[in-house]
Design a protein that fits this description.
The chain has 17 helices and 18 strands. It is of the alpha/beta class and 457 residues long. It folds into 2 domains: 197 residues, Rossmann fold; 254 residues, UDP-N-acetylmuramoyl-L-alanine:D-glutamate ligase (3-Layer(aba) Sandwich). The strands form 2 sheets. It has an 11-stranded mixed beta sheet with strand order 1-9-18-17-16-15-14-13-10-11-12, with helices on both faces. It has a 7-stranded parallel beta sheet with strand order 4-3-2-5-6-7-8, covered by helices on one side.
Length: 457
Protein backbone atom coordinates (compact mmCIF):
# COMPACT_ATOMS: atom_id res chain seq x y z
CA UNK A 1 0.00 0.00 0.00
CA UNK A 2 1.27 3.45 -0.91
CA UNK A 3 0.06 6.18 1.43
CA UNK A 4 -0.03 9.79 0.34
CA UNK A 5 -0.24 12.95 2.44
CA UNK A 6 -1.06 16.49 1.48
CA UNK A 7 1.50 19.27 1.34
CA UNK A 8 0.01 20.79 4.49
CA UNK A 9 0.45 17.51 6.36
CA UNK A 10 4.06 17.23 5.22
CA UNK A 11 4.84 20.79 6.27
CA UNK A 12 3.27 20.22 9.68
CA UNK A 13 5.33 17.06 10.19
CA UNK A 14 8.56 18.77 9.09
CA UNK A 15 8.22 21.80 11.35
CA UNK A 16 9.05 20.26 14.75
CA UNK A 17 11.95 18.28 13.27
CA UNK A 18 13.44 21.34 11.63
CA UNK A 19 13.14 23.27 14.89
CA UNK A 20 14.97 20.43 16.62
CA UNK A 21 17.76 20.56 14.04
CA UNK A 22 17.02 17.25 12.31
CA UNK A 23 19.09 16.91 9.10
CA UNK A 24 16.09 16.46 6.80
CA UNK A 25 17.75 18.03 3.77
CA UNK A 26 20.87 15.92 4.17
CA UNK A 27 18.77 12.75 4.32
CA UNK A 28 16.72 13.77 1.31
CA UNK A 29 19.59 14.90 -0.89
CA UNK A 30 21.75 11.88 -0.12
CA UNK A 31 18.91 9.51 -0.97
CA UNK A 32 18.24 11.48 -4.14
CA UNK A 33 21.88 11.26 -5.22
CA UNK A 34 22.00 7.51 -4.54
CA UNK A 35 18.87 6.96 -6.65
CA UNK A 36 20.43 8.91 -9.52
CA UNK A 37 23.77 7.11 -9.23
CA UNK A 38 22.28 3.63 -9.32
CA UNK A 39 20.40 4.42 -12.53
CA UNK A 40 23.39 5.76 -14.43
CA UNK A 41 25.38 3.28 -16.54
CA UNK A 42 28.52 4.79 -14.98
CA UNK A 43 29.10 7.50 -12.37
CA UNK A 44 32.69 8.63 -12.83
CA UNK A 45 32.67 11.14 -15.68
CA UNK A 46 28.88 11.05 -16.10
CA UNK A 47 27.44 14.37 -17.26
CA UNK A 48 24.68 15.47 -14.92
CA UNK A 49 22.72 18.74 -15.14
CA UNK A 50 20.77 20.29 -12.30
CA UNK A 51 17.82 22.58 -13.03
CA UNK A 52 17.78 24.70 -9.88
CA UNK A 53 15.06 26.97 -8.57
CA UNK A 54 14.83 28.90 -5.35
CA UNK A 55 13.92 27.28 -2.05
CA UNK A 56 14.50 23.84 -0.58
CA UNK A 57 13.76 21.94 -3.78
CA UNK A 58 16.64 23.62 -5.58
CA UNK A 59 18.82 23.14 -2.50
CA UNK A 60 18.09 19.40 -2.48
CA UNK A 61 19.21 19.23 -6.10
CA UNK A 62 22.43 21.15 -5.33
CA UNK A 63 23.37 18.99 -2.34
CA UNK A 64 22.66 15.86 -4.38
CA UNK A 65 24.81 17.31 -7.16
CA UNK A 66 27.62 17.88 -4.66
CA UNK A 67 27.42 14.21 -3.62
CA UNK A 68 27.66 13.13 -7.27
CA UNK A 69 30.50 15.54 -8.04
CA UNK A 70 32.59 14.23 -5.13
CA UNK A 71 32.31 10.79 -6.70
CA UNK A 72 33.61 11.88 -10.06
CA UNK A 73 30.52 12.98 -11.97
CA UNK A 74 30.69 16.14 -14.08
CA UNK A 75 27.83 18.19 -12.62
CA UNK A 76 26.56 21.52 -13.94
CA UNK A 77 23.86 23.60 -12.26
CA UNK A 78 21.58 25.76 -14.40
CA UNK A 79 20.17 28.44 -12.09
CA UNK A 80 16.64 29.56 -12.92
CA UNK A 81 16.41 31.69 -9.77
CA UNK A 82 18.56 32.71 -6.84
CA UNK A 83 19.37 29.44 -5.04
CA UNK A 84 19.81 28.74 -1.34
CA UNK A 85 23.28 30.19 -0.81
CA UNK A 86 24.84 27.57 1.47
CA UNK A 87 23.68 24.80 -0.88
CA UNK A 88 25.27 26.56 -3.85
CA UNK A 89 28.51 27.08 -1.96
CA UNK A 90 28.62 23.42 -0.93
CA UNK A 91 27.99 22.38 -4.52
CA UNK A 92 30.84 24.55 -5.81
CA UNK A 93 33.24 23.31 -3.11
CA UNK A 94 32.51 19.73 -4.19
CA UNK A 95 33.59 20.52 -7.75
CA UNK A 96 30.26 21.38 -9.31
CA UNK A 97 29.98 24.18 -11.85
CA UNK A 98 27.35 26.75 -12.79
CA UNK A 99 26.48 26.81 -16.47
CA UNK A 100 23.80 27.47 -19.06
CA UNK A 101 21.17 25.35 -20.79
CA UNK A 102 23.81 24.39 -23.35
CA UNK A 103 25.03 21.91 -20.73
CA UNK A 104 21.97 19.77 -21.53
CA UNK A 105 23.57 18.71 -24.81
CA UNK A 106 24.98 15.26 -24.21
CA UNK A 107 23.84 15.05 -20.57
CA UNK A 108 23.33 11.56 -19.17
CA UNK A 109 20.92 12.75 -16.48
CA UNK A 110 18.95 15.82 -15.42
CA UNK A 111 17.67 16.60 -11.92
CA UNK A 112 14.56 18.76 -11.97
CA UNK A 113 14.76 20.97 -8.89
CA UNK A 114 12.90 23.97 -10.28
CA UNK A 115 9.64 23.91 -8.32
CA UNK A 116 8.84 22.07 -5.11
CA UNK A 117 5.68 20.62 -3.59
CA UNK A 118 4.47 24.09 -2.64
CA UNK A 119 4.35 25.21 -6.26
CA UNK A 120 0.95 26.24 -7.59
CA UNK A 121 -0.23 27.34 -11.00
CA UNK A 122 1.60 27.50 -14.34
CA UNK A 123 5.38 27.59 -14.51
CA UNK A 124 6.80 31.10 -14.55
CA UNK A 125 9.24 30.30 -17.32
CA UNK A 126 9.41 27.42 -19.80
CA UNK A 127 11.44 24.33 -18.94
CA UNK A 128 14.14 23.56 -21.55
CA UNK A 129 13.45 20.53 -23.75
CA UNK A 130 14.50 17.31 -22.00
CA UNK A 131 13.38 14.68 -24.47
CA UNK A 132 16.95 13.90 -25.56
CA UNK A 133 18.15 13.27 -22.00
CA UNK A 134 18.26 9.53 -21.14
CA UNK A 135 17.33 10.02 -17.46
CA UNK A 136 15.14 12.78 -16.02
CA UNK A 137 14.75 12.68 -12.24
CA UNK A 138 12.25 14.97 -10.53
CA UNK A 139 13.12 16.21 -7.05
CA UNK A 140 10.06 15.63 -4.83
CA UNK A 141 7.60 16.52 -7.62
CA UNK A 142 7.93 17.20 -11.36
CA UNK A 143 7.88 20.94 -11.93
CA UNK A 144 4.48 22.01 -13.22
CA UNK A 145 2.57 19.21 -11.46
CA UNK A 146 0.41 20.14 -8.48
CA UNK A 147 1.49 17.90 -5.60
CA UNK A 148 -1.96 17.82 -4.00
CA UNK A 149 -4.29 17.48 -7.00
CA UNK A 150 -2.14 16.10 -9.82
CA UNK A 151 -3.10 18.95 -12.12
CA UNK A 152 -0.55 19.13 -14.94
CA UNK A 153 0.21 22.61 -16.23
CA UNK A 154 1.50 23.41 -19.71
CA UNK A 155 5.21 22.68 -20.06
CA UNK A 156 5.36 20.46 -16.97
CA UNK A 157 8.41 18.23 -16.66
CA UNK A 158 7.85 14.63 -17.72
CA UNK A 159 10.16 12.61 -15.46
CA UNK A 160 11.42 9.07 -15.75
CA UNK A 161 11.72 8.88 -11.97
CA UNK A 162 10.33 11.05 -9.19
CA UNK A 163 12.13 10.82 -5.84
CA UNK A 164 9.76 12.22 -3.23
CA UNK A 165 10.56 12.77 0.43
CA UNK A 166 8.80 11.59 3.57
CA UNK A 167 5.66 10.26 1.89
CA UNK A 168 3.94 10.15 -1.47
CA UNK A 169 1.74 13.11 -2.35
CA UNK A 170 -1.76 12.66 -3.80
CA UNK A 171 -0.93 14.41 -7.06
CA UNK A 172 1.95 12.01 -7.71
CA UNK A 173 -0.53 9.12 -7.81
CA UNK A 174 -2.76 10.99 -10.25
CA UNK A 175 -0.21 12.44 -12.72
CA UNK A 176 1.58 9.16 -13.36
CA UNK A 177 2.56 9.98 -16.95
CA UNK A 178 4.68 12.86 -15.68
CA UNK A 179 5.88 11.21 -12.48
CA UNK A 180 7.33 8.05 -14.00
CA UNK A 181 8.63 5.59 -11.41
CA UNK A 182 7.75 6.84 -7.94
CA UNK A 183 10.39 6.41 -5.21
CA UNK A 184 9.41 7.41 -1.67
CA UNK A 185 12.33 8.20 0.63
CA UNK A 186 11.85 7.94 4.39
CA UNK A 187 13.33 11.02 6.07
CA UNK A 188 11.85 10.42 9.51
CA UNK A 189 8.55 12.31 9.38
CA UNK A 190 5.86 11.47 11.93
CA UNK A 191 2.79 11.76 9.75
CA UNK A 192 -0.89 11.69 10.58
CA UNK A 193 -3.38 9.38 8.87
CA UNK A 194 -3.06 9.37 5.10
CA UNK A 195 -6.08 10.79 3.24
CA UNK A 196 -5.10 9.07 -0.02
CA UNK A 197 -3.71 5.62 -0.72
CA UNK A 198 -2.98 3.26 -3.59
CA UNK A 199 -3.01 -0.52 -3.62
CA UNK A 200 0.21 -2.19 -4.70
CA UNK A 201 -1.33 -5.66 -4.51
CA UNK A 202 -4.75 -7.12 -3.76
CA UNK A 203 -4.12 -10.59 -2.39
CA UNK A 204 -5.23 -9.57 1.11
CA UNK A 205 -8.59 -8.40 -0.25
CA UNK A 206 -9.40 -11.32 -2.54
CA UNK A 207 -12.28 -13.47 -1.28
CA UNK A 208 -11.21 -16.83 0.08
CA UNK A 209 -12.78 -19.99 -1.32
CA UNK A 210 -11.70 -22.11 1.63
CA UNK A 211 -15.15 -22.12 3.25
CA UNK A 212 -17.27 -22.09 0.11
CA UNK A 213 -19.77 -24.93 0.14
CA UNK A 214 -21.96 -24.14 -2.86
CA UNK A 215 -22.75 -21.55 -5.50
CA UNK A 216 -24.92 -19.54 -3.14
CA UNK A 217 -22.25 -19.08 -0.48
CA UNK A 218 -19.82 -18.05 -3.22
CA UNK A 219 -22.08 -15.10 -4.04
CA UNK A 220 -24.97 -14.42 -6.38
CA UNK A 221 -24.88 -11.27 -8.50
CA UNK A 222 -27.73 -9.83 -10.53
CA UNK A 223 -27.09 -8.08 -13.84
CA UNK A 224 -29.60 -5.69 -15.42
CA UNK A 225 -27.81 -4.71 -18.61
CA UNK A 226 -28.07 -4.72 -22.36
CA UNK A 227 -30.97 -4.36 -24.77
CA UNK A 228 -31.96 -5.55 -28.21
CA UNK A 229 -29.76 -2.80 -29.66
CA UNK A 230 -26.85 -3.26 -27.23
CA UNK A 231 -26.75 -6.92 -26.35
CA UNK A 232 -22.94 -6.83 -26.21
CA UNK A 233 -23.04 -4.83 -22.99
CA UNK A 234 -25.03 -7.61 -21.36
CA UNK A 235 -22.65 -10.30 -22.62
CA UNK A 236 -19.59 -8.44 -21.34
CA UNK A 237 -21.08 -7.58 -17.96
CA UNK A 238 -22.39 -11.09 -17.31
CA UNK A 239 -19.16 -12.65 -18.55
CA UNK A 240 -17.07 -10.45 -16.28
CA UNK A 241 -19.15 -11.40 -13.26
CA UNK A 242 -18.65 -15.06 -14.12
CA UNK A 243 -14.91 -14.68 -14.74
CA UNK A 244 -14.50 -12.67 -11.53
CA UNK A 245 -15.72 -15.64 -9.51
CA UNK A 246 -19.39 -15.16 -8.70
CA UNK A 247 -21.08 -18.41 -7.65
CA UNK A 248 -24.07 -17.56 -9.78
CA UNK A 249 -25.06 -14.77 -12.15
CA UNK A 250 -28.73 -13.95 -12.57
CA UNK A 251 -29.37 -11.93 -15.72
CA UNK A 252 -32.58 -9.96 -16.23
CA UNK A 253 -33.17 -7.97 -19.39
CA UNK A 254 -34.21 -7.84 -23.01
CA UNK A 255 -30.96 -9.42 -24.24
CA UNK A 256 -31.91 -12.65 -22.47
CA UNK A 257 -31.74 -14.88 -25.53
CA UNK A 258 -28.25 -13.71 -26.48
CA UNK A 259 -27.01 -14.10 -22.90
CA UNK A 260 -28.48 -17.59 -22.62
CA UNK A 261 -26.77 -18.68 -25.82
CA UNK A 262 -23.39 -17.16 -24.94
CA UNK A 263 -23.25 -17.82 -21.20
CA UNK A 264 -25.11 -21.05 -20.38
CA UNK A 265 -23.80 -20.75 -16.80
CA UNK A 266 -26.03 -17.74 -16.18
CA UNK A 267 -29.60 -17.96 -14.93
CA UNK A 268 -31.53 -15.85 -17.44
CA UNK A 269 -34.88 -14.11 -17.50
CA UNK A 270 -36.34 -11.18 -19.39
CA UNK A 271 -38.35 -10.08 -16.35
CA UNK A 272 -36.68 -8.20 -13.48
CA UNK A 273 -39.50 -9.12 -11.13
CA UNK A 274 -38.64 -12.81 -11.47
CA UNK A 275 -34.85 -12.50 -11.30
CA UNK A 276 -34.60 -14.02 -7.83
CA UNK A 277 -32.52 -13.10 -4.79
CA UNK A 278 -28.98 -11.80 -5.16
CA UNK A 279 -26.24 -10.41 -2.91
CA UNK A 280 -25.46 -7.51 -5.28
CA UNK A 281 -26.70 -5.91 -8.49
CA UNK A 282 -25.08 -4.30 -11.51
CA UNK A 283 -27.39 -2.01 -13.45
CA UNK A 284 -26.95 0.20 -16.48
CA UNK A 285 -24.65 -1.01 -19.26
CA UNK A 286 -26.53 -0.78 -22.55
CA UNK A 287 -30.06 -0.65 -21.07
CA UNK A 288 -30.94 2.69 -22.68
CA UNK A 289 -31.65 5.97 -20.95
CA UNK A 290 -35.41 5.38 -21.03
CA UNK A 291 -35.19 2.40 -18.64
CA UNK A 292 -36.12 4.39 -15.54
CA UNK A 293 -38.35 1.62 -14.19
CA UNK A 294 -35.60 -0.99 -14.33
CA UNK A 295 -33.13 1.27 -12.51
CA UNK A 296 -35.75 2.17 -9.91
CA UNK A 297 -36.56 -1.52 -9.34
CA UNK A 298 -32.91 -2.44 -8.79
CA UNK A 299 -32.15 0.52 -6.52
CA UNK A 300 -35.21 -0.25 -4.38
CA UNK A 301 -33.57 -3.50 -3.27
CA UNK A 302 -31.62 -3.61 -0.03
CA UNK A 303 -28.36 -4.95 -1.47
CA UNK A 304 -25.24 -3.23 -2.85
CA UNK A 305 -25.66 -1.89 -6.38
CA UNK A 306 -23.13 -0.87 -9.04
CA UNK A 307 -24.66 1.95 -11.12
CA UNK A 308 -22.97 2.24 -14.52
CA UNK A 309 -23.41 3.71 -18.01
CA UNK A 310 -27.06 4.47 -18.91
CA UNK A 311 -28.13 4.07 -15.28
CA UNK A 312 -25.82 6.96 -14.41
CA UNK A 313 -27.65 9.21 -16.85
CA UNK A 314 -30.99 8.14 -15.36
CA UNK A 315 -29.78 8.72 -11.80
CA UNK A 316 -28.41 12.14 -12.70
CA UNK A 317 -31.95 13.08 -13.75
CA UNK A 318 -33.65 11.25 -10.85
CA UNK A 319 -31.28 11.71 -7.94
CA UNK A 320 -33.90 10.70 -5.40
CA UNK A 321 -33.29 7.10 -6.52
CA UNK A 322 -29.85 7.39 -4.91
CA UNK A 323 -30.69 9.65 -1.98
CA UNK A 324 -33.46 7.31 -0.78
CA UNK A 325 -31.18 4.28 -0.50
CA UNK A 326 -29.66 2.91 2.69
CA UNK A 327 -27.67 0.02 1.13
CA UNK A 328 -24.26 0.62 -0.45
CA UNK A 329 -24.25 2.26 -3.88
CA UNK A 330 -21.32 2.64 -6.26
CA UNK A 331 -21.41 5.10 -9.16
CA UNK A 332 -18.84 4.42 -11.90
CA UNK A 333 -18.75 7.51 -14.17
CA UNK A 334 -16.10 8.65 -16.58
CA UNK A 335 -15.62 12.41 -16.84
CA UNK A 336 -18.50 13.10 -19.25
CA UNK A 337 -20.91 10.98 -17.23
CA UNK A 338 -19.79 12.79 -14.09
CA UNK A 339 -20.72 16.13 -15.68
CA UNK A 340 -24.33 14.97 -15.99
CA UNK A 341 -24.61 15.37 -12.23
CA UNK A 342 -24.17 19.12 -12.56
CA UNK A 343 -20.54 20.18 -12.78
CA UNK A 344 -17.28 19.27 -14.52
CA UNK A 345 -14.59 17.19 -12.88
CA UNK A 346 -12.06 20.03 -12.99
CA UNK A 347 -8.37 19.82 -12.08
CA UNK A 348 -8.86 18.06 -8.71
CA UNK A 349 -10.09 14.55 -9.51
CA UNK A 350 -10.05 13.31 -5.93
CA UNK A 351 -11.92 16.39 -4.76
CA UNK A 352 -14.49 16.05 -7.54
CA UNK A 353 -15.21 12.41 -6.72
CA UNK A 354 -15.52 13.29 -3.04
CA UNK A 355 -18.00 16.11 -3.71
CA UNK A 356 -20.34 13.78 -5.59
CA UNK A 357 -20.01 11.04 -2.96
CA UNK A 358 -20.80 13.44 -0.13
CA UNK A 359 -23.70 15.03 -1.99
CA UNK A 360 -25.48 11.78 -2.83
CA UNK A 361 -24.33 9.58 0.07
CA UNK A 362 -22.74 7.04 -2.28
CA UNK A 363 -19.35 5.71 -3.27
CA UNK A 364 -17.85 6.97 -6.51
CA UNK A 365 -15.38 5.32 -8.86
CA UNK A 366 -14.25 8.10 -11.20
CA UNK A 367 -12.74 6.40 -14.23
CA UNK A 368 -9.57 7.61 -15.88
CA UNK A 369 -5.91 6.78 -16.35
CA UNK A 370 -5.69 7.10 -12.57
CA UNK A 371 -9.12 5.91 -11.44
CA UNK A 372 -10.24 7.38 -8.11
CA UNK A 373 -12.43 5.57 -5.57
CA UNK A 374 -13.99 7.47 -2.68
CA UNK A 375 -16.88 7.31 -0.26
CA UNK A 376 -18.59 10.13 1.62
CA UNK A 377 -15.94 9.72 4.34
CA UNK A 378 -12.64 7.91 4.80
CA UNK A 379 -9.57 7.82 2.57
CA UNK A 380 -9.53 7.98 -1.21
CA UNK A 381 -7.87 5.28 -3.27
CA UNK A 382 -6.12 5.93 -6.57
CA UNK A 383 -5.69 2.98 -8.90
CA UNK A 384 -2.21 2.67 -10.39
CA UNK A 385 -2.81 -0.18 -12.87
CA UNK A 386 -4.97 1.71 -15.37
CA UNK A 387 -3.71 2.57 -18.82
CA UNK A 388 -4.84 3.95 -22.20
CA UNK A 389 -5.37 0.33 -23.24
CA UNK A 390 -8.72 0.51 -21.45
CA UNK A 391 -9.97 3.41 -23.57
CA UNK A 392 -12.00 1.10 -25.79
CA UNK A 393 -15.68 0.21 -26.06
CA UNK A 394 -17.04 -2.24 -23.51
CA UNK A 395 -14.22 -2.24 -20.98
CA UNK A 396 -16.41 -0.31 -18.53
CA UNK A 397 -19.03 -3.07 -18.79
CA UNK A 398 -16.34 -5.57 -17.81
CA UNK A 399 -15.30 -3.46 -14.83
CA UNK A 400 -18.88 -3.14 -13.61
CA UNK A 401 -19.48 -6.88 -13.82
CA UNK A 402 -16.23 -7.68 -12.05
CA UNK A 403 -16.98 -5.29 -9.20
CA UNK A 404 -20.48 -6.73 -8.91
CA UNK A 405 -19.02 -10.21 -8.41
CA UNK A 406 -16.65 -8.94 -5.71
CA UNK A 407 -19.56 -7.28 -3.91
CA UNK A 408 -21.61 -10.47 -4.08
CA UNK A 409 -18.67 -12.38 -2.67
CA UNK A 410 -18.60 -10.22 0.45
CA UNK A 411 -16.22 -7.31 -0.10
CA UNK A 412 -17.46 -3.94 1.10
CA UNK A 413 -18.13 -1.39 -1.59
CA UNK A 414 -14.89 0.59 -1.13
CA UNK A 415 -12.70 -2.50 -1.34
CA UNK A 416 -14.71 -4.10 -4.14
CA UNK A 417 -14.38 -0.96 -6.26
CA UNK A 418 -10.66 -0.48 -5.69
CA UNK A 419 -9.77 -4.19 -6.01
CA UNK A 420 -11.92 -4.42 -9.13
CA UNK A 421 -10.18 -1.42 -10.70
CA UNK A 422 -6.76 -2.91 -9.86
CA UNK A 423 -7.58 -6.29 -11.43
CA UNK A 424 -9.22 -4.62 -14.43
CA UNK A 425 -6.01 -2.73 -15.17
CA UNK A 426 -3.85 -5.80 -14.76
CA UNK A 427 -6.18 -7.85 -16.96
CA UNK A 428 -5.78 -5.25 -19.71
CA UNK A 429 -1.99 -5.41 -19.44
CA UNK A 430 -1.97 -9.22 -19.46
CA UNK A 431 -4.56 -9.64 -22.21
CA UNK A 432 -2.25 -8.93 -25.15
CA UNK A 433 1.10 -8.19 -23.59
CA UNK A 434 0.32 -4.52 -23.07
CA UNK A 435 0.20 -3.70 -26.80
CA UNK A 436 -3.51 -3.37 -27.54
CA UNK A 437 -6.66 -5.01 -26.27
CA UNK A 438 -10.44 -5.21 -26.40
CA UNK A 439 -13.17 -5.60 -23.82
CA UNK A 440 -13.55 -9.30 -24.61
CA UNK A 441 -9.83 -9.92 -24.14
CA UNK A 442 -9.85 -8.05 -20.82
CA UNK A 443 -12.76 -10.21 -19.67
CA UNK A 444 -10.91 -13.42 -20.57
CA UNK A 445 -7.72 -12.22 -18.84
CA UNK A 446 -9.43 -11.43 -15.51
CA UNK A 447 -8.62 -14.87 -14.00
CA UNK A 448 -4.97 -14.40 -15.02
CA UNK A 449 -4.91 -11.09 -13.17
CA UNK A 450 -6.26 -12.81 -10.06
CA UNK A 451 -3.69 -15.60 -10.41
CA UNK A 452 -0.91 -13.02 -10.71
CA UNK A 453 -2.15 -11.24 -7.58
CA UNK A 454 -2.21 -14.47 -5.59
CA UNK A 455 1.29 -15.48 -6.69
CA UNK A 456 3.11 -12.13 -6.59
CA UNK A 457 1.78 -10.25 -3.56
Amino acid sequence: MIRAHTVAQVRAAEEPLLKAGAPLMARASTALAVEVARRLPFLYGARVVLLVGTGNNGADALWAGAWLARRGASVVAVLAAAPVQDALEGFLRAGGRVGTEDALDGAEAVLDGLVGIGGRGPLRSPVPPLTAVPLVVAVDVPSGVDADTGQVHDGAVRADVTVTFGTAKPGLLIARDHVGELVVVDIGLDLSEAPVEALTGVRAWLPSDARVSDKYTRGVVGVAAGSTSYSGAALLCVGAAIRAGAGMVRYAGTAAERVRDHWPEAVVTDDLESAGRVQAWVVGPGIGTDSVGAVEHVLAQDVPVVVDADALTICAEHQRLLRDRSAATLLTPHDREYERFGQPVGPDRIGAARRLAEDLGVHVLLKGDATVVVGPTGPARVNTTGSPLLATAGTGDVLAGGIGALLARGLDVFDAASVGAFLHGRAAALSTGGVTTSAGLVLEAWPAAVREALLRD
